[in-house]
Amino acid sequence: MRALACPALLLCLLLGSTAAQAACESGLAERMQARLYPNRSLDHGLAACKAWPAFAGRSIVVLPLQPLEEPAMPTGQRSLDLAVLLIQRPDNGNTERDAVIAQSYQSAALVESGAALQELRIDTSRFLLATGQRAFGLRARYRGDELAAPFASESLRLYLPQGKKILEVLAETEMDRDSGRWDLQCDGQFERLRSQLSVDAEPGQRWADLVIARTLTPSRARLQPDGQCLEHTGPSRHTPLRLRHDGQGYATPAPAKSAALKSPR
Hints:
This protein is mainly beta. Helices cover 6% and strands 51% of the residues. The strands form 2 sheets. Strands 1, 6, 7, 8, 9, 10, 11, 12 and 13 form a 9-stranded antiparallel sheet that branches. A 4-stranded antiparallel sheet has the order 2-3-4-5, with helices on one face.
């Protein structure tokens, strides 16, 4: 048990700030959009760029694009198309010679439904899936705006360059989540999901497995007779998942089962 002034505030802070990944210097994303998709509108706030340290002179660019035709969606929801580019940049810094060496395009790849997309972030951790096959990640952060039901989450996709194409080998998978329901005073139920992804290559195996270690922790906050707000953290549930490559990619794991978040009484 611990005393809290505002339990839901902790949920709102657990996933950290959503400062943009400031790596699209010199208008790189805008230049790529103008060159490849001149008739499309770019969501500048979500565009992401990052140098790939594993490969000299290469950068990854992510372009969230407004659909040519807005799909019929409920009020407050929207979708964005997603272009992912691998670019070879010249040593002399001449931006006009930036060359797109691989790319992918996914229609309606990003969907806001009940939670707004806050940030896209490129992850260049060492995702070595096979000999000479190095992937990179794309993390997306979402946040809800309902005060009585705080919500924040982060998902991960993995992309693997193959020739002139970039293949999505792991579809969007939720990794972290903070969620809850409370009465805006104290009483409420909350839970925290945290996940760690690792690459596990066994001897003689063509493609490495992906191992996701999930930890789901519930908590309950209640107002005490003396006016203190106390939160009790329940036992964490640890769930290891092993994903095997099926020749095309990795199957998307089922969402982590959420503890029932009932409306506070």
